[in-house]
Input
Amino acid sequence: MITNKRIVDLRSDTVTLPTGSMRNAMADAELGDEAYGDDPNINELEELSAEISGKEAGLLVSSGTMGNLLAALLHCDRGEQMIVGHRAHCYIGEMGGASVHGGVIFRLVDNNERGMIDLDQVYELLNPKDEPQPKTGMVEIENTHGSTGGRVLTEADILKVSQLAHSHDVPVHIDGARIFNATVALDISLSDLAQSVDTVTFCLSKGLAAPFGSMLCGKREDIERARLIKKSLGGGLRQAGVMASAGIVALNEMVGRLAEDHQNAHNLAIGLAEVPGINLNPEDVETNQVYFNVNLINQSEILDELENNGVRGLILDEGWRFVTHYGITEEDIDWALSIIDKTFKKFV
Ligand SMILES: Cc1ncc(COP(=O)(O)O)c(C=O)c1O
Output
């Protein structure tokens, strides 16, 4: 039986579907073998990514996780440490890949409520007191910072990290899975925001709605080495221009519209703050992610009831999360808020 039940899916921006122009570009894409440098769309996407990020070169990889893993393997030798925030996605959400594949040690420093790392703690780790302390291979930061609610690091924040790390000859990598949400929120170009760092990853999927792929950008010599490491991980591609073509559309057409997602998230947060049982400060919502706490029992029951009523969200370790994206309209937000209000009132 076909049902036309309305669903507003706020679990993540990873649920986005490709746009019509992406599907057309994919259907029409001229293809070739990546291994021979023959795929025109992959080549164009890598050049475009390098240009947008202000770096010398770009590399198409399958996912944000693979981009971050390649950065770790590029910058850190076995037994070296990477300094990351204790709530970093690469530490809590990527299966420990840098340790598994590269023998890299995660050294944790505190993330504050905006996702910024504690620079005093970084300084201590960069200046080992004891000889046997592992060498630091890189410092990684995340922008926007997921588990603190899509918060934004500014150019000045990033520069502070880079200056400190570089004064010890340690490179800096940005996990920029959603860095375009940060550039739009700050009204700055990616090349300016990421100017001081050595490598940056960003995702073409998620808010930009492409069905596949992330980019790793940096110095040409680093990216050529990362290309070989990608191959060694089984990440070499063939006629992936069929997907790269959607990535080109994502970069050319989808960045500017993220402002709509931010506005929808802001409206959602304002509405949620009025719902009995929900605690949140709308001012904490800087991009497309709305995190909040619920001071009611039976939270998983409330979530299930919302799902039955057509609104999907998630309960994570950090609390409840709703994320706005390309598939969500202003009207969807109004509708979802009316469902959320009715549902929560049943549980207070
Ligand atoms: C901040 C951050 N970094 C990296 C990733 C990993 O991206 P992927 O799912 O493409 O591997 C995610 C995924 O949601 C993320 O939120």
